[in-house]
Amino acid sequence: MRAVSRWACLAVLATVLLSCGGETASSCGPTTARVAEAIDGDTLLLESGERIRYLLVDTPESTGGRQDCFGPEAHAFNRGLVEGRQVTLAYGEACTDRFGRLLAYVSVDGREVNTLLVERGHACVLHVPPAGTARRSEFEALEAEARRARRGIWGACSPVPCQR
User: What are the boundaries of the signal sequence (predicted)?
Assistant: First the structure.
């Protein structure tokens, strides 16, 4: 049986608390929202107009005329999880990236999408300090396991497009 990370448990708890009348905004942005569109594998557009960039996640490109190896698959996986759905947002050490997108851990139905993307091999870990510093080693361990198992990009792409 697989152990559940404390972050997944916290995401579920946050979802329960919010559904019972908890706060709906943090100092960074909304804590719950409906996703209008999955722009690509690692970026969302909320119905409110905010753009969300997944913390610690970098998927192969599939927009702007670029079609990196496994980019369409990462985009489709993300779209299937969140598009049109209500999500819970948790923020890290920084609120936005250099493009003005909100940086968040995104959960839907008690599952954190950030970790799913990395563990299923749809994404590489991208750490841009200080964003995500507290959970960096957790995500790097998920990526290492996906590499060993040759999941997703680790078995399909050579070279891996999001690896820096």
Answer: 1-25
